[in-house]
Write a structure and sequence with these properties.
The chain has helices at 128-140, 157-180, and strands at residues 18-24, 30-34, 41-46, 56-59, 72-76, 86-99, 102-111, 149-155. The protein is an alpha+beta fold. The protein has one domain: Inorganic pyrophosphatase (Inorganic Pyrophosphatase). A 5-stranded mixed beta barrel has the order 1-4-5-7-6.
């Protein structure tokens, strides 16, 4: 059985476009999380607040973020996508946040094969309301757990691609040698 974090190809055009794995469909209230050892999805919890994920949520394979997990991403699309589906994405921005005082970058992408979104290239092209929804979700989704999340800033695709590059490199330096040896 292949492992979605380690065995799925990112694609040769990363960080401009890449494959990603969806963990949580948009509109969902279940917090699924990749079990790093088995490669299966684990139900982490039901969200305590009365909110649902505003976009498909997942990760970029073969990346290692500062928080010790694969790099998180939000994929904008007109439909929810089933968990553990692979799709092609293009980064249009970055949402920088603190989750319990730890840096936690979220790459904002569009689904390349969704005609309602594939013409977006920069986060500034999105309606302001869409960015407000993303911010509000992350500010609220842990509130009833007495945890703090602070959404700091939104940045464009260049900053997002830099974060993706760094996470790809960190995976090759820190995770790949352990898997190969």
């Amino acid at each position: 059985m292949s492992h979605p974090w380690h065995d799925i190809a990112v694609g040769g055009e990363a960080p401009d476009m890449f494959s990603c794995i969806i963990e949580i469909p948009q509109g969902c209230k279940v917090k699924y999380e990749l079990d790093k050892e088995s490669g299966l999805l684990r139900v982490d919890r039901m969200l305590h607040s009365s909110v649902v994920y505003p976009a498909n949520y997942g990760f970029i394979p073969r990346t290692y973020a500062d928080d010790g997990d694969p790099l998180d991403m939000l994929v904008l699309a007109q439909e929810s996508v089933d968990p553990l589906s692979i799709l092609r994405a293009r980064p249009i921005g970055l949402m920088n946040m603190l989750d319990d005082d730890e840096e936690d970058a979220k790459i904002i992408c569009i689904h390349l094969d969704d005609p309602a979104f594939n013409d977006y290239w920069h986060i500034k092209e999105l309606p302001d309301h869409r960015l407000r929804e993303l911010r509000r979700f992350f500010q609220d989704y842990k509130a009833l757990e007495d945890k703090t999340v602070q959404v700091k800033d939104f940045f464009g695709p260049d900053r997002a691609k830099g974060i993706v590059d760094g996470a790809l490199q960190r995976y090759e330096e820190e995770i790949a040698p352990m898997r190969d040896g």
